[in-house]
Here is the input.
Amino acid sequence: MNQAPADTGHERPYIGASIVDGVPRADKRETWRAEIYVPRSGAEMAHRDRGSVCIRGPNRFALDEAEDDLEQFKRAAQESGGDAAKQVRALASRLKTSFERQKHIESGHALGQP
Here is the structure.
């Protein structure tokens, strides 16, 4: 399991980011997904690190799509104004919804076909 590097206390938009293997598919196709570690939202407590949270993108059948997701995650974290977790989580949700919608369209179900 991947571990996020320890936060040293100074605020960074993200702590780590990479492309990882996606969830195995029943049809054995390879998948990849973007994964980014951002500081956990909320106030710091005395003598205690807030820690980080891992946010993952949708499974992608093409590596370049996962790489594009990762760049979008990094940009969202950098432009977040201090709440990277919220912004990146919202982006991940939009990407996953878009991926599921596209999968539904490609299957023919969205066109009302039997």
Notes: The mean pLDDT is 83. Residues 16-106 form one domain.
